[in-house]
Amino acid sequence: MKKNRTSLYLFILSALLAAGIGCYWYNAGLDGITVLNAATAVFIAGLPLPYMLGKLLPYTRGSRQARKNDITLASDSQLAEIGNIDTLILTRHGVVTEGHPYVANLYPAGISPNALLSLAASAEKQATHPLGRAIYETASQRGLQLLEARTFNEIPGCGVEAIVGRNSLRVGSLAWLKREGIDISAELITKNDQLAQKGHCTVFVANGKYCRGIIAIDDALSDDTLKAIRKLKRQQIHMVMLTRENKRTANTVAKKAGLDAAQGQLTTEGKLREIQLLKARGTGVAFVGRGPVNPEIAKAVDVLIELAPATKTIVTATEMNAVDLPAQPQNPHAIYLRSGLLWDFAALQEIGKQTLGRIKLNKLISLITFLLILPPAAGAFYAFGVPFLPAWGALAGQGLALILVTINSLR
């Protein structure tokens, strides 16, 4: 809508300018034909056709290039925004790591490993968080007996709490359990620090007022993402990971992945604050995630990038043609990388920068054309004996500008 209003204003300005020039020369005593020619030539010279085409063609071409790279744009104008991005905010699970968390080890306190896992899985049975699902699936695969939860509450950024049998269970972060007054031994806190230094996620399991152990969960770094990070760093892209996880874990994962920075133990409000700080420095910020993204975060960033769902399925060459890549993003205003690979952002930004470059040159061509044909069309040199530029001359100038804009847009 904004672009349409701009074009309309330019058309109106051209008409007013033509009317003003016509009135001026009519009052100066020139004959009607000369006045009509001057007004028509000025109107033609002021038409924003090269300007409009100079934006439309690069966007159309850039959008076509994006589709060839399995990239779906919510709107063509996103190419201009993506060309100005210099900071990527990444989530851990599914972006920096493969998105398939698994139980790496169990550290019980006063109970058996299977009992620890059974307690946690009974509480996590209805959980939606990837770590909770990993705990439940591991217990199911081991054939452990699970109890039904009478009540269940999932607290974002903290964990879950449930009443299982006569037991009050809490499964979640160390900070949350401390706030709830859970008794946690110094040995478990030390073990938590050791696991965090290795990059493991730690999930504490409490039964009543006592912590019964730690479940260490890992998620392997994605080889594809590691290659993409190296390429993007060569393109001077700053990469930051924002996560709810332990700060030490976040820093360890970021260091292994080669990221520039990481911020851990962040709530949604904390993530929004970090985004605003980045934007306050004049940074173009894009958020990269897989699946639904908090609406507040989506609004806060300049561009939202959504990766297609990761899959473990291996497709053979003979089956490739029969497989359709996921086509629809879960975030309607997101740029959708259908390959599911961060690597494609590098190609997307190159397309965006090329599009911006073509638009800037097209604007320059439009401006030069306007400055060259408007003065003689308006009779700026008539007092020196130079005749008015005829309407067909102004039309020829506009036509030449349109040809140059088209050539530049398609090169």
Give the tags.
411 residues; alpha/beta; Rossmann fold; 3 domains; seven-stranded mixed beta sheet; six-stranded antiparallel beta sheet; elongated
- The percentage helix is 40-55%
* Alpha-carbon distance between the two ends: 28 Å
In quaternary terms, these chains amount to single chain
CATH topology of the largest domain: Rossmann fold
CATH homologous superfamily caption of the largest domain = HAD superfamily/HAD-like
* SS class: alpha/beta
Secondary structure tally, helices: 15
Biggest β-sheet: strands ordered side by side in the sheet: 1-13-12-11-2-9-10
- Indicate the proportion of strand residues: 15-25%
Instruction: Provide the domain count.
Output: 3
Q: Element order, helices and strands?
A: HHHEHEHEHHEEEHHEEHEHEHEHEEHH
Question: Main β-sheet: number of strands, strand sense, barrel status?
Answer: 7 strands, mixed
Number of strands: 13
What features would you describe in this structure?
The protein is an alpha/beta fold and 411 residues long. It folds into three domains: 2-55 and 355-410; 80-98 and 221-338, 3-Layer(aba) Sandwich (Rossmann fold); 102-218, 3-Layer(aba) Sandwich (Calcium-transporting ATPase, cytoplasmic domain N). 52% of the residues lie in helices and 17% in strands. The chain contains 15 helices and 13 strands. The protein has helices at 2-27, 32-46, 49-68, 78-83, 92-96, 113-124, 130-141, 174-179, 186-197, 223-234, 247-257, 268-280, 295-300, 343-378, 391-410; strands spanning 71-72, 87-90, 102-108, 149-155, 159-164, 167-172, 201-207, 210-218, 238-242, 261-263, 285-289, 303-307, 335-337. Helix 11 (247-257) links the parallel strand 9 and strand 10 (261-263). The model is unreliable at 312-325 (pLDDT under 50).
